[in-house]
Fold this sequence. Notes:
Chain A has helices at about 20-35, 65-70, 85-100, 120-125, 145-160, 160-175, 190-195, 225-230, 260-270, 290-295, 305-310, 330, 340-350, and strands at about 5-10, 45-50, 80, 105-115, 200, 205, 215-220, 235-245, 280, 325, 365-375, 380-385. By secondary structure, chain A is of the alpha/beta class. Chain A has two domains: about 5-120 and about 210-235, Peroxisomal Thiolase, Chain A, domain 1; about 150-205 and about 235-385, Thiolase/Chalcone synthase (Peroxisomal Thiolase, Chain A, domain 1, 3-Layer(aba) Sandwich), CATH 3.40.47.10. In chain A, the strands form two sheets. Chain A has a ten-stranded mixed β-sheet. In chain A, strands 5-6 form a two-stranded antiparallel ribbon. In chain A, strand 5 (about 200) and strand 6 (about 205) form a beta hairpin. Chain B is of the alpha+beta class. Chain B is about 20% helix and about 35% strand. In chain B, strand 4 (about 40) and strand 5 form a beta hairpin. The longest helix of chain B has 16 residues, at about 125-140. Chain B starts with 16 loop residues before the first strand and ends with a strand. The interface of A and B includes residues 139, 142 and 202 of A.
Amino acid sequence: MVDVAVVGAGQTKYGNHPLGLKGMWAEAAEAAYASIDGDFEPSQVDEAFIGSVAFGGAQLGNTAALLTEHSGLDNIPVQRVENACASSGFAFRDAWMAIKSGQADIVVAGGIEKMNDLSPERKRFWLGVSGDTEWERLAGLTFPGTYALMARRHFHEFGSNHDDLVHISVKNHMHGLDNEYAHLRKDVSFEKAQSGFMVADPLTLYDCCPTSDGASCVILAADHVAKKLSEDPIWVLGSGAGSDHLALHDRPSITQIRSTQMASAKAYSQAGISAADIDLAEVHDCFTIAELMATEDLGFAERGQGGVFARNGIGRLNEGDVTINPSGGLKSKGHPLGATGTGQVVEVFKQLRGEVEQSRQVRDAGIALTHNVGGSGATCAVNIFGRDIK
Amino acid sequence: MCRQYIREGYQVSSNECIRWQGNLACLRIDGVMVKSRHTIEGAHVFGPDSDHTTLAISGLSLLSDECTIQSVCIDGNIEASILLACGYSIDEKAEWSISCGEDACVSISRGAIQKGRVDGFEIDEEFHSKISEAWLTELSAVSQGAFVSEQAYLSSSSARMNLTSQKMGDLLIWPPREMVGSERPEEGSALRWSGIIESWTKLSAGGAPSEFSLRAPILEGISTVFVRLIDGPCGVFLIADDEDNLPQIGGDVNFAIRRLYAQDGMIRYGLKALIS
C-alpha cells in the first residue's frame, strides 16, 4: 500500500487575528505552499478536507467550498469535517485515507476557527455546543465543568493534586514563550498559576486554554509524489481514531479517555512502535487535567501516574524521554477549535525537520505524535510521524 | 461555598412541620401544606429555583409515603406537564386538590385548604428581586442557550422528572438510551432518588453555560455533582440549596424537582441534588 508523507505545513499566528475566515485560511494555505521544497502548484491538489466547528455560526454550511476557493484549490472535491475540537485531527486522517486508498495523490488537510469576534454571550453558547446538550449542559456543565469533574475524581482516585496541574501549565507556558505562532507567550510562575482565578473548581484560569482565532494547513502526498515535492518529507507512520460516549454519565470511568486509548493503540500498532519510541508529542491540553490524563492514556505514564509524571517534569523540553507540547500546547499556543489538530501537525512537521526556534527544538527528534480530542473525549484522533519511512 | 443571601437561621414554629426537599412541609391527616423556606419580612417568597409547581411536586412526594395519589385537581399556577411527567394525572374531580397560596405556598388536600404559619429563612430582598427579574427576562428573551426543543424536553420528561429508567436484563439504564449495544432497552421502573457523589465542581459565573448567564452572577456561580445513583446508573445534576452544605466525594445526595432554566417562554424543570 502507498505510504503517505507531509510535504508542506503552515499556519497563522493563533490569538486575536485581524482577518476573517477567508483571509486567515489564505494565510495558512500560502504558508503551507511556501514550505514545500520542490515545485508545487495548488492546482496539483486532488482533494481537501477542512476541519471547523463553524464557531459563531459563521459559514456553517459549505465552509470548505468557501475557503478553498480563496486558496487556489478550485474545482476539486472538498468537505468540511466536524468533530468538535478534533475536527482537523479527523480532517488529517481523512486526507491520509484518501491517499492510502489510492483515490488521490496530493490532498490538503486543514482547519480553521474564528472565535474572538463574538460577544461573550454568543461565545459561551458556542463553547458548549459540542457537549451532551440534553443532560450535561442543562445540569450546568460546560467543558471547564466537565474536565473539573474529571480532575477532582482523578485527585480522589489516584492522589494527584492541583499542583500537578500547575506543573503542566507552567511547562506549557514555558514551551510557548518562544513560539512565534503562540497565542499566550508569557512566562507563568508556579505561584501565579497556583493562585489563578477559579473557573470551575478545582480548575483555575491557568488550567484552561484560551479561545483563539487561527487556521492551519497541511499538504499530504503519496510516496511517489512526495519524493519529488520535498527534500525532507515527514512520513505518516500511523493514524488511529476512536470514539466514546458523549456524556460522562455513560462512561465506565471519568478518569480516562477511552477514545484516546483506542486511537493511540491503533496508531502505535500501524507504526510498529510503542509510546517509549516517541520523542515529542503534541497533546490536547484544552485543560491541564486533559494533558495529565492523556499522558496515561497515550502510554507515557502508567494509569494513575499522570500526576507523578507532571510533578517530575518528565514532559519538559529535552529533560525526559519525551517532550510534551513543545509548541506550548493548547494552553499557550492556543486553541482555535477546528484548526488545532492540523496545527499540531504543523508543529511536528517543523520539529522533525529542525525548523522551529532553536530555543524550543526537541533534540534528535525522530518520531512525533499528535493527539487531538473532541470535547470531553467523545472523539479522538492520534497520528504518528517520522523522519524515516517505516 | 455558602452564599450570603440568607440573613438568619430559621425556626419551624409548628411542631407538625418538617424540612422536606429544601422546603417546609406540614403534614396533616387530610393533606400537606408546603411553603418555601425563604421569607422577606415574614412573608414566604420563592427561592432561586422554586415556584408553586416545585412546591406541589415536593408535597406530593411527601404524601406518597402516606398514601397513594394517582390524580389531582390543580389550579392555573401549576404546570400540568410536570405533574404528568411525575406520574400524576390531572382530573377536575380528583379527590386530591392542589391550591396555590398568594405567597410561596401550596396546599395539597382532600378536604379544607391547608393553612398555617411557619417561620422561614429571611433572605436578602435585593437578591430575591434580582433573581425574580432574571427569571422574567430569561422567559421573555430569545435564548442564546443550546436549543433543546419542547418536544425533546417533554419526550424525556419522565426520565428527567421521575428518574424513570430502562432495563436490559439486570442492567438498569438512566438517562434513557435508544440502544444499548445493538438492542433496544425496555422501559423500567423509577429509580430511587438518592445517590453518592463521585465528583463535583462549582463553576464561576463566567464559566457557566449561557442558559444560566443571567442567574449565575447573582448566585455567584453554579454547582454541579456527578452522582452514582444507589440503583447503579450515573448522572450529572445541579445542586440546589448549596448554601447549606459543601459537596464531598462519597457524600450522600437526594433529589428535588426545581427549575433548571427557561427557554422559548417555557420553564424547564428537572431534578437537582440536595446534599444530605
